[in-house]
Amino acid sequence: MSVLLPLCLIISMFTYSNAAYCLCKEGNEQVLQKAIDYACGNGADCTQIQPTGACYQPNTVKNHCDVAVNSYYQKKASSGATCDFNGAASPSTTPPSTASSCLTGSRYVFDSCFILCLDEFSNV
Hints:
Elements: H1 4-14, E1 21-24, H2 29-41, H3 61-76, E2 89-92, H4 111-122
Antiparallel strand pairs: 1-2
């Protein structure tokens, strides 16, 4: 049996983490709008929060902010982006109830290693 399999299993056990969402904090709508503008102008998929988009309702600045900053964060976190937006947002392991179907959390940390373990195990 390869040494890779036990190593992967150990790493998988200790690196598990829940999906991470980037969510806007309750607060000043102008601050939240700036976060939306930044996220949408820098790579977030904001078509969902347009009037014909799947995540337009509820039509609130807070809901739209959650969708925009989370989209940005999911796309850019791997290249060093943070979930702060000048203090307007913070990471969460739980999506908000109002936009949960519109938000995608980051992948589990151990997914790649777990798949590698399965491949290795199937070759034993």
